[in-house]
Amino acid sequence: MPGFDAASVAESLQRVRDRIFAAGGGADVAVLPVTKGFGPEAIEAALAAGCTAIGENYAQELLAKRDAAAKAEVHFIGQLQTNRVRQVAGLVDVYETVDRERLVHEIARRQPGARVLIQVDTTGEPGKGGCPLPDVDALVAVARAAGLDLRGLMTVGPTNAGPEAARAGFRAVRAAVDRIGLAVCSMGMTDDVEVAVQEGSTQIRVGTALFGPRPTP
Asked: Among the residues of 54-110, which ranges form H helices?
């Protein structure tokens, strides 16, 4: 049995919101529950706690939870292989990790007009994906020309360097969001919520803070 239910997730969600407010953010900062690694019951608990959207990282896992996920707005927040787009097209409402031209064109082909965010690489860490900051404007132009509904930018902070190490990258992404004239700045997770909010995040992505440690696979 999972170590959470709708009531405990609602309490945890309030604690996350308290952290957002303490960091200077307001009710307009969205909290995206990350349900990867948990069963469909995490999606159900998040929805019962008042959330309307969830974040998933893996195509196969999303497909396995498609019945529960269909009740939510689904954000794909993991690295997406081009050949997986056809499997999740129609299940995903927002693709947050668009980072290369091939992925832009495949999403546009499989799900015309899809809502997307461009992921920006601010750490240089292998395996995280992301478009280098100097290349963002070119990818923005490609996404718009392909007819995608570009909503904003997304980034992931450093893995083990501590929250403060994310600040410079978060600040640079927020500046790009403002310069390009986008609405969404998706940055910040459980460990660096405060820094992300201070640097202008409009959406944080949290899993552990809501559901506890992920089960061992």
From this structure: 59-64, 66-69, 85-88, 101-110
pLDDT at 1: 60
Q: Which residues, 6 or more positions from 21, have their beta carbon under 8 angstroms from its beta carbon?
A: none
CB 99 within 8 A of CB 119: yes
Cα atoms found within 13 Å of the Cα of residue 132, Cβ hemisphere only: 4
Buried b (16+ CB within 10 A) or exposed e, 43-82: bbbbbebebebbbbbbbebbeebeebbeebebbbbbbbee
| Residue 65 DSSP SS3 | coil
Q: Are 157 and 163 in contact (CB under 8 A)?
A: yes
- 39-72, pLDDT tens digit by residue? 999 999 999 999 999 999 999 999 999 999 999 9
**DSSP 8-state secondary structure symbol assigned to residue 11:** H
Q: What is the dihedral of CA 133, 85, 91, 144, to 10 degrees?
A: 40
Matching residue, tokens 């461009």: 118
Determine the 3-state secondary structure of 106 from DSSP.
helix
Bridge partners of residue 31, in order along the sequence: 204
Dump the DSSP string for 145-185: HTT-EEEEEEE---SSS-GGGGHHHHHHHHHHHHHHT-SEE
Residue 127 in this model has a pLDDT that exceeds 90: no
pTM above the 0.90 mark?
A: yes
Q: What is the pLDDT of residue 217?
A: 63
Q: Of 57, 37, 70, nearest to 129 (Cα)? A: 57
Question: Which is nearest to 32 in space by CA: 15, 46, 48?
Answer: 46
